[in-house]
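Possible regression after last week's pipeline update?

I re-ran a chain I had predicted before the update to compare outputs. Posting the input and the new output here so someone can diff against the archived version. Not blocking, just want to make sure nothing changed silently.
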Amino acid sequence: MAWADGRLDDKEKAGVRGAAEVLNLSKDFRDKLDEALAKALPFDQILFEDLSARDKSFAYVAAVWMMSADDDVDEKEKALVDRIAKEFGLSKETRAELEGIAKDLPKAAAGRKWQDEIVALFKAIPPRLEKAEGGDIEVTFE
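New output (post-update):
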């Protein structure tokens, strides 16, 4: 998402690296992430098949949030958000709700770290969306 407009702003890089730190990604994965920050990965090479409904919700909120991280929303970024929504099979209603969540999240302000914003973003996904849009059904035995 950060590369959607063809350039990578320092704020966007900080957001991606902050997410990697918060999510405690392995060194190997962080190295791959640094490569992705150096050169855009084509959309069709991204593996979405194994994402849970919650992961898709998080990724969509993150994409919408990242789209405005540099305060300059480009048409290419909007098109990529549309493509992600289609790839994830998000309904119009779910998409609107997730976009609302993304827009309500604060941007990194003076004294706050991007890591704080990523934690807020992850916590913002309503639990009921974890099973939305064709996600797995959770079965509990008593």
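Follow-up from reviewer: compared with the archived run. The two ends are 42 Å apart (CA to CA). Marking as no regression found.
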